[in-house]
Amino acid sequence: MALVDDQQLVRSGFGMLINSQPDLAVVVEAGNGIEALAGLAAVAADVVLMDVRMPGMDGIETTRRLMERIKGAPAGSWLSELKIVVLTTFDLDEYALSAIQAGASGFLLKDAPPEELLGAIRTVFAGDAVIAPSTTRRLLDHVAPMLSAPSPASDANAAAVASLTAREHEVFVLIANGLSNPEIAAQLFVSEATVKTHVGHILAKLNARDRVQVVVLAYETGIVSPG
C-alpha cells in the first residue's frame, strides 16, 4: 500500500503500524501529491492512505488525478483496482464530501484507533467503502438538499434504482442505512454469500464503484431522507 502525508513523523508512525501486520506492507511513501503520483506510476499498490492537507498538491486533487488514471486503466490491472482512503485531522463535512466526490472509497480521522485504521484498510481492499462513523450521517444529511436537486443525472439514477429487483432494492436500502453484509444477512435471514451476490448486482446496475457511491445515490434518489 501507499502512504501519503507531508509529516515524516506521521508517516513513520502509520508505517510502523501497517508493517507490523502480516498481511500489510507499505511499498510507497510520499510527502505530497506530486510525489505520490510519481511513486504510484512506478510501484503497484492496492490501497492509498491519503492526507488531505499537503503542500504542492493536496489529497483531494491527488485523489482526482489518481481516479483519472484508474478509470483509464485496463480491466483487471492493479491500477484499475486501486482504492483510496483519505485521512485528515479535520472532522469537517467539506473535507469528507470533497474526498468522496473526488473518488475516495473511505474517509477517516487521523486520531482513529489503530484497529479502526487497519480495519478500514482491509475493508476497502475487500471492496467495501468506509467513512468515519462520526461524520457519515451528518455529512450526508448536510448535503442532502444538494444531492437531491433535479438533474439529468438524478433522472438516470432513478431509472437505475427502478431496475433493481425487489430483493435487491431491500439490500440497497439497508446498505444506504449503513448496514454491513453480515448485518444485512441477519436481517433478511439469508447467507452472507447471498448478500454479497446481491451487492455485486446492485453495484453493476447502479454503475457504482463502491458502497459510498451507493449511499450517495440513495440520497440523490430520495430513498434515504435526512434526519
UniProtKB/TrEMBL annotation:
Sites of 4-aspartylphosphate modification: 51
Residue ranges of domain HTH luxR-type in the record: 157-222
Entries under InterPro entries matching the protein: CheY-like_superfamily, NreC/VraR/RcsB-like_REC, Sig_transdc_resp-reg_C-effctor, Sig_transdc_resp-reg_receiver, Tscrpt_reg_LuxR_C, WalR-like
Species this protein is from: Arthrobacter silviterrae
Boundaries of every Response regulatory domain copy: 1-125
Transmembrane segments: none
Origin: domain of life: Bacteria
PROSITE patterns noted in UniProt: HTH_LUXR_1 (PS00622), HTH_LUXR_2 (PS50043), RESPONSE_REGULATORY (PS50110)
Gene3D superfamilies, alphabetized: 3.40.50.2300
Protein name per its UniProtKB record: Response regulator transcription factor
SUPFAM superfamilies attached to this UniProt entry: C-terminal effector domain of the bipartite response regulators, CheY-like
Pfam families the UniProt entry points to: GerE, Response_reg
Keywords: DNA-binding, Phosphoprotein, Transcription, Transcription regulation
